[in-house]
Amino acid sequence: QVQLMESGGGLGQPGGSLRLSCAASPRISSFNAMGWYRQDPGKERELVASVTSGGITNYADSVRGRFTISRDNAKNTVDLQMNNLKPEDTAVYYCNGVRYEQGWRVNYWGQGTQVTVSS
Hints:
Shape: globular
Low-confidence stretches: none
């Protein structure tokens, strides 16, 4: 059974930092790509950052230079370091994992963790 479990998040101040972590079952190495998405109420879920099994990263323009995604197969986690937080970063953040199963691309999601940026 595939499970993704987020931790971290909470309340951050503008200009401050927060770190999100995602633990996977089975191991992170079983996923072709991992990523973080976020969603505000009434808006579509959007990609924040992703990293492939080969280490190629991709960032949304709105977070590039402020957020860093890292994948650690030994620790079995994918982390999102968020620096220089802005109020517009407030959202529910979801861990995402992609696997190809029997030729089909399958997306897996965590339960989400709230990030609120406010002074």
